[in-house]
Amino acid sequence: MTPKNWNLIELKNVSKEFDGVIALKGVNLSIRSNEIVGLVGDNGAGKTTLVKVLTGVYPPNKGEIYIKGKKIDNLTPQKARKLGIEVVHQQRAVALLQPIWKNIFMGREVVNFLGFLNVNKQKEETERLMKGVLRFRSEAVTPDTLVKTLSGGERQGVQVARALYFDADLVILDEPTTALSITEVDKVLDYVRSLKKEGKSCLFISHNISHVYSIADRIVIMDRGAIVEEFRKKDISERALFDQMKTVVKAGS
Fold first, then answer.
1. What domain range is 30 assigned to?
2. Would 194 be classed as within a structural domain?
3. Residue 14: which residues within 8 A CB-CB, separation 6 or more?
4. Domain count of the chain?
5. What's the pLDDT tens digit per position in 78-121?
């Protein structure tokens, strides 16, 4: 467990190029333990590339990645997950035709001492998560309920619950509120708040400043592959943040 107020994640001078096209340039970013960081920027700002570097999908061309104070070389998605980094993808990476419990444990199934699947244990843990994290109250929704019957926000919640169960230290949410109704957005934002209550950190990526501002401790603005501004929420109003974002976008156009 990383002590509070320590840097859980630190990127130092990270750059990434694709065939001569600069996607990230000299990015310095830290995420503290038990901190929600909002990452905002226009389309093409480099947000998704940053996530893929942080999770080991892309290796950086330059720079260093530190996780829990240790420099990490040759980061891979498997290594990132073992180090406590989980991603809730924009594409809603759930198996719609599978029940909730299978989505929670997919790829990391619980087995008994004989090596057989412990289905009862997985369903019991899923029910606990449904009540505690997802706050499902209807008796009609059980661990055996197919994910396709859940709302968009609830499907996001299944991924958040999965990350919490496997004790992720940092949960990255990539545009989690895209195409959701106001009610569903509120559910997702509540899931983010539950992460902080559990002592976890979150990188919340969105182009919607209102959603970011409502839950973030700190807001970082990206533009054309670089971090151009950074604010503690207590030091800036939502309106001022919106105006600053417009200024950044206009300068880059």
1. 7-88+170-252
2. yes
3. 24, 26, 27, 28, 29, 50, 53, 60, 62, 63, 64, 65
4. 1
5. 999 999 999 887 555 788 899 999 999 988 888 888 888 899 99
